[in-house]
Amino acid sequence: MSDHEHEHLSEAAQAELERLAECLGQLHDPATGLELDELDAEIEVGFEGDTVLVGLTLGYPCASQRDDWEARVREACLPTLKGGPLGEAHLQFELFSEITQTPAADVPEPLRGVKNIVAVASGKGGVGKSTTAVNLALALAAEGASVGLLDADIYGPSLPTMLGTEAVRPEVKEQKFFLPVPAQGLKTMSLGYLMTEETPAVWRGPMASGALNQILTQTLWCDDGDELDYLIVDMPPGTGDIQLTLAQKATLAGAVIVTTPQDLALKDAIKGVEMFRKVSVPVLGIVENMALHTCSNCGHTEAIFGSGGGERIAAGYETRLLGQLPLALSIREDTDGGKPSVVADPDGEIAGHYREIARRAAAQIWLEAGDDSPEIEVV
Ligand SMILES: Nc1ncnc2c1ncn2[C@@H]1O[C@H](COP(=O)(O)OP(=O)(O)OP(=O)(O)O)[C@@H](O)[C@H]1O
């Protein structure tokens, strides 16, 4: 709004906008469970013509939440406006995302432009870590972020199968760098792209971490000049030296730990949490996979592996349960068929779970980075 218009806005109207901003600050952000006031969110309130303009900027991608936010904003604003000096005004709402960057020193050239590196890890194999990583990456992209996915699972790189890119080989630049392979809206890189029939599928320790190191530091993620909001790294399963090296090599924004509800997997998940803590990587939360089983005959849902495990670890280890995925045939069929659930059925319930997990994990990165002082601007 121009200064000129400002002058014409009565003091009463100005005070009304300020009241509105205050009232918006108390809105609850579902991804963090906090009020906007407690977050580094930006709330802009203005008046132009006959319209009250409300802008909200959050630090995580949330395109699918626009309508929900608009409904929440309307519900909060309309009673405040009613009968006041701006009572006849229309309300226009806009939602923005501004993804912060994890500060890092000595970033190797290929990782420059990558704002946040997120490890998806599990204490043991077979819990659905890769399925979670690929769906998480696709869900972040569906929410509006630019996303890369690095399959660092040297023991069984599954990304090419999950994204239907088996026959693809990455381009090589200046005989030194790999260019990521575009797939389903993501920039992807996998050791699977580099393995030939002669390459051993099971690598030994030093060879494995060498390959991993190479793929991490030789993939030019932002060669096109665009930034990547998130690089999701599908880690090798376990909590040994390889995982530790990787966690130390790049400055990680955080780690997501995938577990199943069985006791053993949970004990392994705790090891994962402890490993990241040891190297000062924030644990963004826990994803409990195969948590519930829905009987395909009668539709009855049951926690066949026991319930509440992920929640218990999250509480005991001061982290959060980001979400739970059911044991669902469709998840397996989608991923094994080269179209993960977030893409295969974008409006389905499963995709909804993954998107919610993605928003919560990304919001947690924002929380870790933020100084928690809200910016409220009345223009
Ligand atoms: N929630 C689920 N419901 C049904 N099947 C699932 C679910 N999550 C994963 N799967 C299936 O389980 C198998 C193992 O999953 P995935 O490869 O993601 O596990 P992983 O932990 O990455 O394994 P590894 O450690 O071997 O890499 C796959 O066939 C996958 O499709």
What are the SSEs and their pairings?
Elements: H1 3-8, H2 11-25, E1 28-29, E2 34-35, E3 42-48, E4 51-58, H3 66-81, E5 90-97, E6 114-121, H4 129-142, E7 147-151, H5 159-163, E8 172-173, E9 177-178, E10 181-183, E11 186-190, H6 191-194, H7 205-217, E12 228-234, H8 241-249, E13 254-259, H9 263-278, E14 283-288, E15 293-294, E16 301-302, H10 309-316, E17 321-324, H11 329-336, H12 341-344, H13 349-369, E18 375-378
Parallel strand pairs: 3-18, 4-5, 6-12, 6-13, 7-11, 7-12, 13-14, 14-17
Antiparallel strand pairs: 1-2, 3-4, 8-9, 10-11, 15-16
The structure holds adenosine-5'-triphosphate.
What brief labels describe this structure?
379 residues, alpha/beta, GMP Synthetase, Chain A, domain 3, Rossmann fold, 2 domains, eight-stranded mixed β-sheet, 13 helices, 37% helix, 22% strand, binds adenosine-5'-triphosphate
Q: How much beta, percentage-wise? A: 15-25%
Instruction: Count the E strands.
Output: 18
Under the CATH scheme, which architecture of the largest domain would be assigned?
3-Layer(aba) Sandwich
Question: How much helical structure, as a percent, in the residues?
Answer: 25-40%
pLDDT < 50 runs, ≥5 residues: 1-5
Q: How confident overall, as mean pLDDT?
A: 86
The major beta sheet can be summarized as: 8 strands, mixed
**Structural class by secondary-structure content:** alpha/beta
Bound molecules: adenosine-5'-triphosphate
User: How many helix segments?
Assistant: 13
What is the general shape?
A: globular
Number of domains: 2
As laid out across the biggest beta sheet, the strand order is: 10-11-7-12-6-13-14-17
